[in-house]
Structures are given as C-alpha cells and as structure tokens.
Structure prediction request, 515 residues.
Amino acid sequence: MKYRALKEPQRFENALGADAAQVLDGWVSPRTAKLDKELAAGLSGARLASVNMYGLPGEPGLERLIVKYSPPGGEEEEPGDAEDVWTNSPESFRVHLIRQSVTIPMPGFGKLLIQRVAGDDLDSWVPMSDSELSSASARLKFKAVVRSVLKDWNPDFRTSKTEDGLTVRDFLRMNLGARVEPDGKVHRFATRWNLHQRRFTMLRMQEEPRDLPNPFTLVYTDHEVSSTPIEHVFFGRAHGDLHPGNVLMPDDESDDFALIDLDRYSESAPLSRDVTQLFLTLVAPHLSELTKAQKDLLIDLIADGPRNGGQLPGELVELVEAFDEAAMEWLTGKGANPDWKRQLRLSLIACSLMFTGRGNEWDEKRWWFLRLASRILSTLPFAMPDGDIQGFGPSGIVGGGAAAEPRLKPAAKSEPGRAPSVDSTWDDLRKELERTNFAKTGWLAFKRSAASLIRCLDSTRPPPHDYPRRVPSQVAKLRRLIMETGQARTPLEEFEKGHREAEKLRCLLIRLLTK
Prediction:
C-alpha cells in the first residue's frame, strides 16, 4: 500500500489496522503525521492512538490528535449527539472534554473518529486503564471522575414523573441499548441459554446456597417485577461508553481528567449508567487475578454493601468503597437517596448483563457477571413471579434442579438474528464454507468472512460415521488458524500466511464434506 502522509505507516497499520490507516492518510494529506503511541480502548474491539500531525508552511507546526477506529459489529449502540457535547455542556465542565473534530464513515468497515487535543501536554496524560489500581492516587482520581460527571456535568439534571410511565424493564433497556436487540451480543447470550424465557424466573447456581432471580426476565418479559413503575429516574448528560480507556488523566497527583470518544453522548440518559459502567470496567480485568474464594467475596462486597473484604486485595475493596461514596454523596441532602440507590443497583445489574455479551462463550467472566446481576437483584424488594428454575454450573446450563456436573444445554433452535444454533448440521457447515472467501486480502475483509463461519464451526454437531475421519481434526485446525490469524496485533507477514492457509483448509473441507 502506498502512503502519502503517514510516516512509518507500518506502525499506523499495527495500531489502527490497514484500512483505517489508509483513510487517515487521505485525511491528513497534504500534511504529514507520525504515530505518538497506542492507547488502550476498552473491550469493544476498537483501536485508539495518539497522533502528531505536522502542518504546512504558515499553519500551526504541530497538532495533537486522538484517533479511534471503531470496527463494524463492535459494541452495539446507536450513534450519539457528539457534535452537541461542547455546546450543551456547562462551561465549567468543558475543561474535561476533548472536542470531536471529524467522524469518517467507512462503509462496511466501521468508522474513524479524529479528535483535536488542545495544548501540547498529551505526553503526560495516560488512559485510566493504563494506571495501576493499586495506586492510591488512581483511586482518588476515579472518585473525582464519578463526582464530576454527576455533579459538575449535570447541575441541571431532571427527574422523571409518574405520568412518564417508566418501568423497571424500560430502565434496564435504557442502560443496555441495542445490546438486547435481536442482533445484540447480550441478546444472543440470553437466547442461547434460554435465559430470556418468562418461565425461567429463577436460577440455581453451584456457587450459591439458594436460588436467585433471573435478571434477563426483567429485560425480555412483562411480569409483576419488570412492569413495576420506577419514579424519579435521574436523567442528564452521559458519555455513553465510559470505560477506563476513554478517560485520560495526567501522570501526576492531580485529579484532573479528560473524556474522549464522545460519539455515543446523550443529553438525556440515566445518570447511573456511566458511573456504574466505569466502575465495573475497572473491576473486570482483575477477575483473572482472583481465586474462586476471592471472586465470591467480591460479589458479596458489591451486592451486599460495605463489609470486611477479608482475603480480597485491598485496592479492590477500596475501589468498591470509593464507588459507593462518590456515587451516593452526589444526592446527599436532596431527599432522593432511596430512589438514586435503587437506580444505581439496577444500572449495576444492566452493566453486569452487558458483560455476558463479551468474550468467548466459555469465558468465566460472563458467568461471574450473570451471578453478580442475580445477587444484586436479590437485594431489591421485588418478589419474582412463580416459574421454573434454570440451573447452571461454572461453565454453563445444567437444566432444572440441583446443579451437579457442568453440562451444556443451549437453546434448541435458531432464532432470527441469532448465530446458528447447536443443532447446525455438517451440511450447514459445508454451505457456510462455500459462502466464505478467504482469498481476499485485508484484515477487516478476513474478519468479516470469518465471523459467521466461526459461529457455525462452534455450533455444529459431531459428524456421522459416513463422513471422512479427517473432518473433525481439519475443522479444529481451521478454527484455531482463523482465531490466531484474526488477532488485531498479528504481524502482516504472519497474517498473509495465515489467510492463505485458511483458504486452503476451507477448500479441503468443502471437498471432504461434499458427497
């Protein structure tokens, strides 16, 4: 690929992807640009980098840019009102905003967001996700962000009225957005495991001593609890995707911060949504470092409130306490604390369900967050209607009754807008292989071709005895090759080799499966 404006273009391709680098090159030209550094971009598959752009003679010598590539099919959400953030925000809060400059649609490829950064001090700023949670100053900065987003950004918040007719179901869906629509990742998780069905009002979990309410029924069905009116909902300005990668902080002891990537901004969203998402996205990366006993304690701490953290790392206990303090003190003296506390807990449930749509199907975090959502729901004064119990162990559904051995029992049939079900046949796989084409070059083209094929590979039954014995091993090899080749950081040479091998395997499997 030829580049006119980007210096060291390979670094841009590694950081943002080849397609995004090409679009950025066209936007920058006839100026020039050099990659400063990659930035963490959360869990949505987006890529983020800081870039130095050098002007033409007579223009400013250096401009600092934040560039974000958002791929198609990433975190599902409707576009926000990014262009209105600056004008609609209180003047005192604008110091915490980085103005949106340009959004470039890339048909079929996602979009590129380019933000100009005021000043030239970006070198000393890092994403909150790059800071050590063990640092006391990092936790103080987290409290400062929560306080400021609620108080300084929303001095003119509004509350809903009885005549608005908002219900618990409405509130949860406001928090989850398009994730629970038929094409959403949370929807696919819920329907795959039957958790959206009204009859399964309770869950039986190996790690819990008692049955717990199924939070998905509040999102997908109408019953006594989901239809419960919810009054005095606090609405105001919200980022829309407030995770640690979207909060820049100076690398010093100050509590200053700047919000980036405001493409999902809304001026009328539940105020509890942003702060709960920031909190749980700070917690999530640390789950892999905890023992089973510590994960249990963390659920106790978040769901049941302040207590002795026991064997939990001190920084996690302090993070939970910092969230509770900063979120609750916002309404101190305003007489609405019970309503606000319930909204915080409902948003924690919604954000926990958001995590069930992330990662691969066997990621223990998905099940831990489902358990957290159920535990929090059990603390609210709701009496779930009578219904069946769906039981599951650490790795998946085990059916009604006591959970014994983890044994998967997903939904029996495919539904519109969902991935292929577990009952896909090997004839279905052959047809999917015939529709796929790995001959195209380009990382994004490869990812698009691989997405539906991976779902089909994951959901196909073992072949009957009359298929060649090589089929299962070749399918496993193709799946492994696709996953390794499709990694965002795969070097160009390895990617080109991988997609050629994937195309050969695809053709071989078509021959083996054709009778």
Remarks:
- The first strand starts at residue 6 and ends at 7.
- Residues 395-423 have pLDDT under 50 and may be disordered.
- Residues 492-513 form the longest helix (22 residues).
